[in-house]
Design goal:
- By secondary structure, the chain is mainly α.
- The chain contains 6 helices and no strands.
- The radius of gyration is 23 Å and the shape is extended.
Length: about 140
Amino acid sequence: MGIKMATDGVLRGLGIMRPFLVANMVNLAIRLASYNLQSTFSGFSFYDVKWTPWIIGGILAVITGWCLLGGGSRIVKVTSTLVPFMGIVYILISVIVMIINRAYLPVVFSKIISEAFDFKAIFCRICRISYDAGNTKRSVLQ
């Protein structure tokens, strides 16, 4: 006898709608990514209001279609290449930002340490942990 989840009935009730919901989530992700990219490129001189969003959206659609139509193995290949690259770029950019703003680092670290070990912060965290523990027991027993 497994644990009854609150979402079990909802997922069973969706039935034929599941593929459409997945397609809608993929569509939303592509639209959000293309909006973020086009707003990022809007600051550059080569940005054209009429064509650049279409070009970015087309490139994202082709890449996404290529991944999805290639099956699970292609998705694994693309993500196994893309994720480490994204991680390395993220770390490099964060180090560059820290180097550029090195004058503010002592203030930032002192603020983090002073607010992390504040009595109010510790008390609120203990209350939140106990609240979450009580809710976890309650949701498992239902």
